[in-house]
Design brief:
This protein is mainly alpha-helical. It is built from 5 helices and 2 strands, in the order ββααααα.
């Protein structure tokens, strides 16, 4: 793994995958922004990382690009499978909820919400 100046690993493997030491941020989180070509300073600020942490993450990604990319693709695939699973599991619940009338006193807000939804759907 990549090393800190104090001899500790900067990138470790946890149950969540490759993780920046001292955080819950995985390299797959960082990869979302690397693949979208966000600048390192933006990624650093987004995740509130130190300069050493972002440097270690980007260095590790660059050095082990093929392996990290393969794991990242697997994470994306599993995420999509979970999204589809829960979408299907909740389809009936969402339909029941959408069919309920608005609570008394929320009619105006409900009308605004429906108008915004119709406007958004007309753009698609």
């Amino acid at each position: 793994m990549t090393s800190h100046s104090k001899g500790q690993a900067a990138i470790i493997r946890t149950a969540r995958g490759l993780t920046i030491t001292g955080t819950r941020i995985t390299l797959y989180d960082v990869m979302d922004y690397v693949t979208a070509q966000y600048p390192p300073k933006f990624i650093q600020g987004l995740f509130d990382l130190t300069q050493e942490q972002i440097d270690a993450a980007l260095s590790y990604i660059e050095t082990h690009r093929a392996d990290v990319e393969a794991e990242y693709q697997q994470v994306l695939h599993e995420t999509e499978e979970l999204r589809q699973y829960y979408k299907e599991q909740n389809r009936e619940r969402v339909a029941r909820s959408a069919a309920k009338p608005p609570k008394p006193g929320t009619e105006t807000a409900w009308e605004k919400l429906q108008a915004a939804k119709a406007k958004r759907e007309s753009r698609v």
